[in-house]
Amino acid sequence: MANPEQFLPFQPALQNSHQLKNYQQQMQNCRGISHFYSFTTDDNLNNALVIPDNCIDILFDCNTHQPTARVYGTVSRYKPVELISGHRYFGIRFMPGIMPDYIDLIPEDMPDHEYNFLDIIPGAASVIEDIALRENFTQQIKVFNESMANKALRQSSQITQYLITEVMRNNGNIKIGELEKDIGYSSRNIYRIFLNDTGVSLKLFSRFLRMQIAINMIRHPGKPSLTDIATELGFSDQSHFIKDFKTLTGVSPRKMKVQLSQPAVCLSQA
């Protein structure tokens, strides 16, 4: 069972890559933020492969000569994101299904898209500059929190909040008929409300979550077998699990397990 307050979306290419240096991470779990992170790219890296996680990220390029920031919606399958070699980055990852109100877009505009921070958060140039000037990760977090302290989160409906909790509680393995009985809405209304609030369908959200949970099961101590993971997540058999996992991440679960078992960067949980 995934606890919504403790679930940590994982991006292997950012959090377990030999081509990133000085990776740091700090959980937040308030104001809709899952965690902050920072890293420096090495001199040969020009992109990182990201995978679905149901999250919105804000990523600051802290090049002091020309700092920039971009906002990313979740991808629907693995996709390269452009990075600049030798640059220092600072990021904010929001909790799955959460969208801050200061992003001047509707949720359905986010998946598989990226935007210039200043285009959708006008008047925030000073925030970019201030974060870029801070060498210390903790200070960058402080600047962001203070700059955005008066900004609200977009309020999802109580139905969507309940659905996210239920999807996580059931490891992404939900039955729409049971949800209809629980909340007294038709499946059509459930899907419409959820899509309007999160930008992705309930089916896709559940599918992405199952893959993220599978990765967390693979990377943690006492790693269960792929058969056990498939069963735990409600797949009919291991082959269906492997096919879906590879479609979303670009690699098989077995290859992911090998990659994650190799020490790469030091993760810090401050």
TrEMBL record:
One of its GO terms (molecular function) is sequence-specific DNA binding. Residues 157-259 form the HTH araC/xylS-type domain. Pfam families: DUF6597, HTH_18. Keywords: DNA-binding, Transcription, Transcription regulation. InterPro entries: DUF6597, Homeodomain-like_sf, HTH_AraC, HTH_AraC-typ_CS, Tscrpt_reg_AraC-type_HTH. Gene3D superfamilies: Homeodomain-like (1.10.10.60). SUPFAM superfamilies: Homeodomain-like. PANTHER family: ARAC-FAMILY TRANSCRIPTIONAL REGULATOR (PTHR43280), HTH-TYPE TRANSCRIPTIONAL REGULATOR EXSA (PTHR43280:SF2). This is AraC-like DNA-binding protein.
